[in-house]
Amino acid sequence: MTTPAALTNHQIRLKARPSGLPTRDGWEFTTEQVAEPAEGGVLVKTLAISLDPAMRGWMNDGKSYIAPVAIGEVMRAGGIG
Question: Taking the CA atoms of the chain, what radius of gyration do you get in angstroms?
């Protein structure tokens, strides 16, 4: 399978840990070309993502039930595709 050049992945990366409510300045918005799936793999288009209150806790650099989102890392979220 050849991936068309027009397929892109829009990403929201954590640029800085917020103090209080997150602001636009704390994020980096990037776009990357979609990689071709490995043999037997599939490419799934995201139709919706979930924005949950837990996401605010993931931005903190502290011990929790899940590792914090690292600076420069894509913000994680549940999704449907």
Answer: 15
**pLDDT class for 52, splitting at 50, 70, 90?**
very high
CA distances from 60 to 7, 24, 41, 43 (A): 32, 16, 34, 31
Residue 3 lies in a domain: no
pLDDT in tens, 2-37: 545 568 999 999 999 999 999 999 999 999 998 888
69 within a domain of the structure (yes/no): yes
The verdict on residue 49 lying in a domain is yes
Centre a 10 Å sphere on the Cβ of residue 55 and count the other Cβ atoms it contains. 15
40 within some domain: yes
Number of domains in the chain: 1
Q: Taking 60 as the threshold, does the pLDDT of residue 55 lie above it?
A: yes
The token duo for 34 is: 């979609």
Please state the φ and ψ torsions of residue 73, each to the nearest 5 degrees: -85, 150
